[in-house]
Amino acid sequence: MSRIAFVAEIRPGRKADLERLLAVGPPFDLESAGFEHHRVYVGDKEAVFVFEGINPLKAVQALATQRALTKQIARTMGILSAPRFLGEVYAWDRREAATAAS
């Protein structure tokens, strides 16, 4: 399992719009897209989208090319700016640490 994250700045005055959009959930089926877990963190000025799965970067790239999502992506980019990809370089999980110690 691997994880990736995207961070983006929230345009001034648009945090409430982003929270309303996120409350509806993603405009695609997470499981059929290939994700095991998905989280979104929202601060005052930034949002972080975390995707976990077998190959989450490939899954995100495939979603970005779907014509049906173009309108939703454009709407989201009206709320967010300067999106950046973050690759995972360190992770710790209690379950995996306990298994390794056995």
Chart the SSEs and their pairings.
Layout: E1 2-10, H1 15-23, H2 30-33, E2 35-42, E3 46-53, H3 56-64, H4 70-77, E4 80-87, H5 94-101
Antiparallel strand pairs: 1-3, 1-4, 2-3
- Please state the CA-atom Rg, rounded to the nearest Å: 15 Å
Between the first and last Cα atoms, what is the distance in angstroms? Answer: 21 Å
Please state the structural category.
alpha+beta
Discrete helix count: 5
How would the global form be characterised? globular
Fold-level CATH name: Alpha-Beta Plaits
**CATH C-level name:** Alpha Beta
Spans of at least 5 consecutive residues whose pLDDT stays below 50 are: none
What would you say about this model in short?
The protein has 5 helices and 4 strands; from the N terminus they run βααββααβα.
3D architecture notes:
The protein has 5 helices and 4 strands; from the N terminus they run βααββααβα. The chain has helices at residues 15-23, 30-33, 56-64, 70-77, 94-101, and strands at 2-10, 35-42, 46-53, 80-87. The longest helix is centred in the first third of the chain and has 9 residues, at 15-23. It is globular and about 50 Å long. The two termini are 21 Å apart.
